[in-house]
């Protein structure tokens, strides 16, 4: 009778450890998904602000259609990235950020535009949104780090492998995009 009790006691302890680790992995995965939704909300907010910004700039810089068109194309590309493709989303967002810099550089050449209240408000909103995106990105990447650590650490890596958990992708710049993002925009007249 005692060996049977010991067997079931050990089996129960193993099951308890397994489910505890499994629940920790689920919690980490949900945190990553929640953090991604925070990024998604801020990206959508940015997408909504861009058409207003473009329309405000159009009135002052009619001959800068190429710059405005590149921002529109970058926005469309960023909005068209399939859900869940973090690497492609990061690349599209970095391209969009670069084109937005060119609009603000354009504003430097148009004093009336720089003084336009609508433009100033949109610029503030967009700047605030960019800050929120950066904060959401840090939160997301922090949660990805926690999940990836659990997926790769012993003994949770055994549970992760059995249960189908895998590493999540970071939302970051690759080297080429980082160099492009750090380069100041070029605007010529």
List the helices and strands and how they pair.
Layout: H1 2-58, H2 65-79, H3 86-108, H4 111-115, H5 117-152, H6 156-163, H7 175-182
Keywords:
de novo design (two linked rop proteins); disordered C terminus; 0% strand; 189 residues; mainly alpha
Radius of gyration over alpha carbons? Answer: 24 Å
CATH C-level class is Mainly Alpha
Structural class: mainly alpha
Please state the average pLDDT score: 86
Give the strand tally.
Answer: 0
What gross morphology would you assign? rod-shaped
Low-confidence stretches: 184-189
What is the total number of structural domains?
Answer: 1
Order of helices and strands: HHHHHHH
* Secondary structure: helix percent: over 70%
Sketch the major β-sheet. none
Portion of residues in beta strands equals: under 5%
Instruction: Assign the CATH topology.
Output: de novo design (two linked rop proteins)
CATH homologous superfamily descriptor: LemA-like domain
CATH architecture: Up-down Bundle
Distance between the termini: 91 Å
Number of helices: 7
Oligomer: single chain
């Amino acid at each position: 009778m005692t060996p049977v009790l010991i067997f079931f006691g050990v089996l129960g302890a193993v099951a308890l450890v397994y489910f505890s680790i499994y629940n920790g992995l689920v919690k980490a995965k949900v945190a990553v998904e929640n953090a991604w939704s925070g990024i998604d909300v801020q990206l959508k907010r940015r997408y909504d602000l861009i058409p207003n910004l473009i329309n405000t700039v159009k009135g002052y810089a009619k001959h800068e259609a190429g710059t405005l068109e590149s921002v529109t194309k970058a926005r469309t590309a960023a909005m068209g990235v399939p859900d869940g493709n973090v690497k492609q989303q990061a690349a599209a967002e970095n391209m969009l950020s670069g084109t937005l810099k060119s609009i603000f550089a354009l504003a430097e050449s148009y004093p009336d535009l720089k003084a336009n209240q609508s433009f100033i408000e949109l610029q503030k909103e967009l700047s605030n949104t960019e800050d929120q995106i950066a904060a959401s990105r840090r939160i997301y990447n922090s949660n990805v780090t926690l999940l990836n650590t659990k997926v790769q650490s012993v003994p949770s890596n055994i549970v992760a492998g059995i249960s189908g958990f895998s590493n999540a992708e970071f939302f970051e710049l690759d080297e080429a995009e980082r160099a492009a993002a750090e380069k100041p925009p070029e605007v010529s007249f």
